[in-house]
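Kindly inspect the following:
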Amino acid sequence: LPGGGASLRLCSTRGAQDGINKPVIDRIIRVDHAGEYGANRIYAGQMAVLGRSSVGPVIQQMWNQEKAHLKKFNELMVAYRVRPTVLLPFWNVAGFVLGAGSALLGKKGAMACTVAVEESISEHYNNQIRTLIEEDPEKYKELLQVIKQFRDEEQEHHDTGLEHDAEATPAYSVLKTVIQLGCKAAIFLSERI
């Protein structure tokens, strides 16, 4: 990955399957792929509205990291033979609408959306890290490394949103709560469907 990011050695399909808890790994990779796909669509929507504004380069930088995250989860889907969620067409539209809609509120609105989403995702990644450590930290060492790195980068995006006045958005707490409820629903559904 750019910037010295974690890489996960792709193994043969059989090697990737040996000794893993397939239902747990399928659920983790499926939902993380869906989440990174949705994040890409959110940033695409924000860039469509604010790309030429003063905050455009900040959004682009975060989007570039999300693109790298999605690329890695695309690779993991193949390596572990995980099917994507059937909800990807919905996340395609919903993500873009959320990104563009929040950006229509201005820079602060876009950053409020970023804070809400990235806080939810960081918490979600922390739960996955705990699950994998409980399963077998040595067996899932490489996957843990990827998830920890991505969690840290999502936390940076969260902090960037706060630094760019997310909390000054009108009705910030309501907006944040609604977006986070949507994130929780998306996580729940994407893990299962």
Residues 7-15 have pLDDT under 50 and may be disordered. The domain at 22-191 is CATH 1.20.1260 (Ferritin). The CA atoms of residues 116 and 176 lie 5 Å apart. The chain is about 75% helix and 0% strand.
